[in-house]
Amino acid sequence: MRASSVFALTLLQLGCGAGWRSKPLVDGPLPRRQQAQVWTHGRALRWHALVVAPDTISGVPFTRSPACDSCRAAIPRGLIDSVRLGNPTAGFWRTMGLVVGIPIVAVIVICRTDTCQLGD
After folding, report:
1. In this structure, which of 6, 60, 91, 102 has its CB flanked by the most CB atoms within 10 Å?
2. CA distances from 56 to 26, 72, 78, 113 (A)
3. CB under 8 Å to 96, separation ≥6 — which residues?
4. Which tens digit of pLDDT belongs to each residue from 61-116?
């Protein structure tokens, strides 16, 4: 029973959240829709359409179109604490899958026993 509990908790952890991960950045543009949290002075800026240059990182706020060049902001790399990449939309759908999937699996497991009598 203990091993199945650990497995269930691990599955829940993997399925939830945006999957924000710190990755070393290489100079150049990232995919336009790739979301990033750019941490500076203890606050996170959420951007996409990131362009990493040797001295700055620039991006467009995620609430704006990635094609909006007039919305682009830049921060010197020396002022950046960290950058994390993630996909909040995929995280939402993984969480929804678990919220819906776990009860369905529980019903199937319970109903496979003789104790589940549907239609009585």
Report:
1. 60
2. 12, 12, 8, 61
3. none
4. 999 999 998 999 999 999 999 999 987 676 667 777 777 778 787 777 777 765 66
